[in-house]
Amino acid sequence: MEDRALVRRAQQGDLEAYDTLVRRYQERIYATLYHMTSSHEDASDLAQESFVKAFRALPSFKGDSSFFTWLYRIAVNKAINFRKLKKNKAQMSLNDLDFTAEHDPAIVELISEKTPRRDASLAELQQHLNEALQELSEVHRLVVTLHDIQGLSHEEISKILDCNVGTVRSRLFYARQQLQALLAGYLQ
Amino acid sequence: MEKESHHESPRRLGSLLKWKRHEQPPPGYFSSFSHGVLAEIQFPSEPPSSPWASWWNQVAGPALACSYGLMLGGILFIGLAASQSAHDAHPSSFVQHWAILGSQSPPRMPALETRDNPVLLGSASLSSLSPVIDSGPIGFMFEDRPSPIARVSFSPR
Fold first, then answer.
1. What are the tens digits of pLDDT across the range B77-122?
2. Which of B12, B45, B52, B54 to probe by mutation at the A interface, max A CB count within 10 Å?
3. What Å distances lie between residue B115 and A122, B110, B124, CA to CA?
4. This prediction's pTM
5. 3-state DSSP call for residue A87?
6. Most exposed among A39, A42, A51, A105, judged by the fewest C-beta atoms under 10 Å?
7. CA-nearest residue of chain B to A150?
8. What is the predicted ipTM?
9. B115-142 exposure pattern, b = at least 16 Cβ within 10 A, e = fewer
10. Min CA distance, B16 vs chain A (Å)?
11. Does any CB of chain A come closer than 8 Å to the CB of residue B39?
12. Which of residues 7-36 of A touch B (CB under 8 A)?
């Protein structure tokens, strides 16, 4: 069933329809919040709050944008407000890596072939990457999360952030430059 | 060589960032996630307490309770110390005072004696408190002469 029909049913109080929408987007919303907060617990709380808030705001949803974009906006605003409130620099849990990561060709190549520090373990690389991401501002971290990690297009991100595509591109360019500088030892 | 490195760096960064897609929550997390959302929608829990409220609950509240307890303890201690010093300063009068208090019986009420009380004496004939008529003939009420003053006496029950 399409989002639009499910949203219409959820607007009439159908919780089963909303349950379907939650299941459809929970992983993407959670992932965005996880990469923004660097904490499973915080991401979990914010994801739940985002879905609850979205349900309560459903009567005001007119359908001008897709439900997915609208939901993302709620989650992203939650994440930005949360990070403004909590200026912590919590480290991500290094046990959260999916075991399939070790068999990803790109990663195998990255850590075994041309990396100057050949002794760098997966956990060490991950830790440095997370530390570098934490150095970015909220908006730069957000575009990197949405585009480079989650694979959203520039257009989708511009709709979520309510800005033009050029702004998304320039933010992404600046964020990548910063990350390259911060991870210079691992990327050359 | 330098040019190759210049091109390699963004590609490696892209690989590193894609790698983050493999970071997953604990197993089974998403299977129960929507239940939590629906439960929160149907039965909203209390909003998280403000930083001030949590600060009050965790720090200020217990500190205030402790200081209140200490203050009461201090007042008790000061009272005991003051009474001890008073006892040390005048031990005889202190003991005497308590000894008197201990042995003293409550003051007795003075007996009502109408014969010494002009007010009671004047209203004696009108009293309903078992007047005792000492003298006088029986038919004195019908006689045209001033009634003699009767001496009454009574004792409290």
1. 999 888 888 877 766 555 555 555 555 555 556 655 555 555 555 5
2. B12
3. 118, 14, 10
4. 0.58
5. coil
6. A105
7. B21
8. 0.72
9. eeeeebbeebeeeeeebeeeeeeeeeee
10. 7
11. no
12. 15, 18-19, 22-23, 26-27, 30-31, 34-35
Tokens 């705001």 correspond to: A57
> What is the rounded radius of gyration, in angstroms, for the C-alpha atoms of chain B?
49
Share in percent of chain B as helix, strand, coil (round to 5): 65, 0, 35
pLDDT at A91 over 50: no
Task: Provide, as residue numbers in chain B, all residues whose Cβ is less than 8 Å from the Cβ of A120.
Answer: none
Count of CB atoms within 10 A of residue A74's CB? 18
Chain B CB contacts of A18 under 8 Å are: 38, 41
Q: What is the pLDDT of residues A50-69, one digit of tens each?
A: 999 999 999 999 888 899 99
Chain A interface mutation, best of B2, B5, B11, B23, highest count of A Cβ atoms under 10 Å:
B23
- Mind listing the pLDDT tens digit for each residue in A120-142? 566 777 788 888 888 888 889 99
CB atoms within 10 A of CB A43: 23
Say whether residue B24 is in contact with chain A using an 8 A CB cutoff: yes
Q: Which residue has the tokens 């609208």?
A: A70
Q: Could you give the CA distance from residue B33 to residue A23 in angstroms, rounded to a whole number?
A: 8
Q: Which residue has the higher pLDDT, A108 or B43?
A: B43
**In the predicted structure, residue A9 carries a pLDDT above the cut 90:** yes
Which ranges constitute the DSSP H helices of A38-164? 40-57, 67-85, 105-112, 122-135, 138-143, 154-161
pLDDT range class, residue B16, cuts 50, 70, 90: confident
